[in-house]
User: Fold these one by one.
Assistant:
Number 1:
Amino acid sequence: MTDAQETAAESALRTAGGAPPDDGVAGVIVGEAPIPLLEPREGIPPVVASEAALAEVIAAFAAGSGPVAVDAERASGYRYGQRAYLVQLRRGGAGSALIDPVGCPDLSALGDALDGTEWILHAATQDLPCLREIGMVPTRLFDTELAGRLAGFPRVGLGAMVESVLGYALEKGHSAVDWSTRPLPEPWLRYAALDVELLVDLRDALEEELEQQGKLEWALQEFDAIASAPPAPPRKDPWRRTSGMHKVRRRRQMAVVRELWTARDAVAQRRDVSPGKVLSDAAIVEAALALPANVHALTALPGFGHRMGRRQLEQWQAAVDRARALSDAELPQPGQPVTGPPPPRAWADKDPAAAARLSAARAAVSALAEELNLPQENLITPDTVRRICWEPPVLPTGESVAAALTSCGARPWQVELVTPLLVTALSSTA
């Protein structure tokens, strides 16, 4: 630890509740005991739940300087969908803000006020969908989790990153609570405010680290790709992702899963609760395997016990009956339509040459990723490698392989690094 960092740490320890000094801490901390971060430096901000209070926050953040730290809390496992139930922000000159999207469901004016400002998020792809729903869409961002991956950190959770990079220990005990609770308890609000307390400091330290490693341009390209990505389309046949679906073999049984999943989803949406609280995936699979002929038979299955009311049981049995009544032509087909190459385990039988190409490409990508000290999937996605190895360019030249990588969504830095590897792998096994 440098003299400046020691001074900052001592100042932090003297600060009430262990809050960091006003100017934060920069640089990577190694081998020092982390300092507990117990209180936001300006205290817990009030929860913004009215249009008047929101207008004040918008004005303050529009007048602020530098990037803005952004986080969102959802109620996964408690409520239907992935909507935001709290939005946290912090910016130089504006301090921190906690906004209640229930009381202020439209934050597009805040998003407009921050247009062009760099947003700092941790694991941005997790929060961007729920932020988009309330009108907050960044044009520029810095993802501290992704930056940590590219920099080669072994643990990239927010708490681990803040501890290893800045030397502070975040309290993470409230990450899985029901954020739809109103009013939100003070300890939860403190936790939420601390999640953005050091994001700007973390961003600055990681930018410096990436610059030193020669990876900053890679990171900036990745961040641009996230910010410019369109919203993900709705998943096709989401019922197929029911946990335990691999046990369901027959088409009639698959129809039961589909009917029960659809009925459960409608109930969950109407009641605004997590689908798993309405009926478990395990219960759906049990009913599909057993194909119960009546409510009595359904009651005997795991997940449909005596605690379940008669009306609920009849509702689930009606779904089973609908599946039982379908004609063969109406039954779902096994598996999902294949839009890419087959599973790699089948390549040796289907196309031995493709299997050889994939083996060579994987080995080369793995070796380069290890040399660069970053995860293989960040160097290039496994799906991209599979697609190019399954259907390679007729002539695997640098130009043709680079074009294939680009068509699969690879960023320029990935194309530059991976193209020579794939050209060699495709040519040596031709």
Number 2:
Amino acid sequence: MSAPLPTSHTAVTVPEVMAALKLSRFKVYDLIRTRQLPSFTVGRARRVPADALHTFMQNQLKEAA
């Protein structure tokens, strides 16, 4: 994986979210389960909209301030 969050995609995979946030698979799925991080499935593949990931990060920064 060359970049944690590819800018050419509009939806990212769970491993890409893990790399971007430096979190475990369990924690990413926990964020998805608790609806803190929106996602959708296509078949068996789970995807997170890139905009939702950016919004999540912005919200975390606001809460930390």
Number 3:
Amino acid sequence: MSVSIPLSVRVPQDDFEWLTSLDIKGANTPSDKLRAVIQLHRREHDGSQSYELALSWLRDVVQPFAREVAAYEHRSSKRSEVVAAMLEWVPQLMALLASEHIHTDASPARARQVEDMLLQRSVSLLSTLLRLGITPASSTYDDNAIARQLPRLGELIDAVRAAQPQS
């Protein structure tokens, strides 16, 4: 168990008002809230050292949105696979960006490794979204959401194919 050390700080009035207005579960006093802010920032900092910690932290960051989505989907009896995919894949991409490092003296192999990890996850997200276009009625809030985007993606895919050297 760690020892608590008293800390006295002076903060500007607007920072104090902001701190006291924060709604942090289990933190009622300014001291409780300051400890919670320190813990949150420490989690963010530690996440830059580890993919797993970064992913956990980022999932917590999007959790309020995920709860709102779940409540909306329950009330409306509608589900969006687009939103579900984003909630799954975007924190993974962000966790990679937050935790991986390419230092100035990194080897080209290291840079390629990070690039490949990001590309793999990005392609997985894109594949997930494209698969939604296969079925006539996609699981989205707007039945035509995917269909409206497919022509533009198709044109882009065709342009990429045309730009590739013939083998």
Number 4:
Amino acid sequence: MKELVILSGKGGTGKTSLTAAFAALTQNHVLCDADVDAADLHLLTNPEIKQKHEFIGGSKAIIRTPDCTRCGVCLQHCRFSAISDDFVVNHLDCEGCGVCVTFCPEQAIDFPAQKCGEWYISATRFGPMVHARLGIAEENSGKLVSLIRKQAREIAETQNCSLIITDGPPGIGCPVIASITGATALLIIVEPTVSGQHDMQRVVDLARHFRVPTLLCINKFDLNPEMSKTIEDSASQAGLQIVGRIPFDPDFTKSMVAGLAISEYAEAAPQLSRLLRDIWSNIMQSQALQHRQPEATVLPLFNK
């Protein structure tokens, strides 16, 4: 079983659109939306939820008023000013560190686990899908990402699926780390801008740290051909395979409005659909997905 994780250094580069496009081009796979903070793959897959589960991802302090002597120890130790002068915990400010629980001399503070979100197992026209929704301002997104990736793998094993396609979160933070560890290969989607190149390099650096083979796809390459060439040169020096270059095309937006993957929008965009098929073929035949790519060399963030 293989897992391809699709990433980008920032949001809005086309990760989800391409994830849905690739899902429409292959069979015998499981979809996983690991962007739990701002999940949107469901907008293109129209999932039918089969299972719904609560995500218990952390704890919040609750002061038992009858047992509290108002000694003030918790106020002194709380570094987030989450406890009012009336000795009531503000759950929006509480970081769940548990320091107040540890130092309370009367043991008058409870620390129950909290529901931080929900995760789902759904059926889509592309096959099974595991996705989640983290609550507003909730923590532990990395833990939730790990949970749904585990569920996706279990489904793939049960249904004898050969591939997991994961729509990863943007950036290089905790949820990204949770989404790439143990993956077979990464596909980085990059736009031809200075910030796009910088963000790409950060993701490449992270992938190298975890020794995950990495592929590259340039989206909207024709909007800035000079920067696209610069990114290609940097990728080549770093030993990264460029699997495709996608031009700017309004049909991407039209397909999203229609709730379709761009690959399903073939009548309106036959040339683009063929291009995406070629890119998917390059991905499936790549050394990265076959575990034959040597470790990439990481370039400095900026060329001097």
